[in-house]
Backbone:
């Protein structure tokens, strides 16, 4: 009898309820047990799991690694999919392997390259992947200088943190003065240059920004599955153009993604994003983790989460080619069950909370944001 596979997802995105759904509906008909932990007691991922716990708050990366090792040992975890503290966790891969847990994440060298977007752009440019022009700004003067150069070249400047995930911190620069126009409708991603400059001058915190031209649609996110042998098993592009979504296998997107995934050893699941700069695709971002919208590949007849788990277990799924490309679609939010009772956040100095119930109450629900909603703005 084939034993069940125990998979742990630590503090992750709400969209990964679909990740767990696909693991349970795997084509191998293998029993899968999902363990989930989170800092938010009302995360739908906790309700979707078979077993769930609140994570302790305030742990340093080193302390979190110890916590993770203890979880894997106590729960007999076969495959751990780390998002929070990924860098610290993958540096201790041997420790996890020693207790029988495979990490579904790239090696530390690959994670380090793509943690800093400046280092990432320099690295991928060196292997021939096109990148947009960019400037690093750590002060108000450097920001203004970068904006002026981009404007002189006819570009619309924008900026984002040099390190970070998703579209967090992405803003577009405008020189239009703040007015009532900015208070009507929904909040905008545009910020006034003079307000940003003043904020930088007044802040006592250091900043590290990547300033670049605004890139145009379509945006193409290539979901990749790469083996520990650095050989790509899967590359499928998901296209975004306004509300319309679709799929592509065009080599103008897949070939640079393949160069990055294989060249830097992005083992297991990664997501490599491109946009247009003029008439050519350029790299926008590289995520060393499964994308929130990965489950959308099911519209192409592909179960990527299960293929990745197989690979982590040493069961090579072989080359994964979609049997068809799904029709264009859009993404809307929908309800997901929550647990019956909302528990307070767990504190480090308190007695550990009991396990959360695995069966959610049908009466309560949360709307899972559309996949990629956190990345709706250019990032």
Residues:
């Amino acid at each position: 009898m084939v034993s069940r596979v125990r998979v742990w997802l630590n503090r992750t995105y709400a969209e990964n309820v679909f990740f767990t759904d696909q693991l349970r509906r795997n084509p191998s008909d293998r029993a899968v047990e999902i363990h989930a932990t989170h800092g938010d007691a009302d995360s739908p991922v906790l309700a979707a799991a078979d077993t769930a716990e609140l994570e302790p708050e305030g742990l340093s990366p080193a302390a979190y690694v110890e916590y993770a090792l203890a979880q894997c040992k106590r729960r007999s975890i076969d495959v751990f999919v780390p998002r929070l503290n990924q860098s610290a966790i993958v540096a201790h891969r041997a420790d996890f392997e020693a207790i029988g847990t495979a990490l579904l994440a790239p090696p530390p060298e690959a994670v380090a390259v793509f943690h800093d977007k400046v280092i990432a752009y320099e690295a991928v440019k060196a292997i021939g992947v096109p990148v947009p022009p960019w400037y690093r700004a750590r002060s108000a003067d450097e920001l203004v200088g970068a904006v002026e150069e981009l404007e002189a070249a006819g570009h619309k400047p924008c900026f984002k943190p040099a390190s970070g995930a998703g579209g967090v911190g992405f803003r577009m620069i405008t020189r239009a003065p703040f007015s009532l126009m900015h208070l009507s409708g929904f909040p905008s991603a545009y910020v006034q240059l003079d307000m940003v400059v003043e904020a930088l001058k007044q802040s006592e915190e250091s900043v590290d920004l990547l300033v670049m031209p605004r890139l145009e649609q379509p945006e193409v996110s290539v979901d990749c599955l790469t083996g520990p042998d650095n050989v790509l098993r899967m590359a499928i592009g998901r296209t975004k153009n306004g509300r319309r979504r679709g799929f592509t296998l065009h080599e103008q997107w897949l070939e640079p993604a393949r160069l990055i995934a294989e060249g830097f050893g992005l083992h297991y699941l990664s997501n490599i994003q491109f946009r247009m700069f003029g008439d050519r695709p350029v790299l926008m971002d590289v995520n060393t983790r499964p994308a929130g919208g990965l489950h959308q590949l099911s519209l192409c007849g592909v179960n990527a989460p299960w293929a990745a788990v197989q690979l982590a277990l040493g069961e090579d799924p072989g080359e994964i080619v979609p049997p068809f490309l799904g029709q264009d679609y859009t993404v809307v939010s929908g309800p997901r069950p929550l647990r019956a009772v909302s528990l307070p956040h767990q504190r480090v100095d308190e007695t550990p909370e009991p396990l959360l119930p695995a069966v959610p109450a049908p009466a309560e629900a949360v709307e899972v944001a559309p996949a990629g909603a956190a990345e709706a703005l250019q990032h």
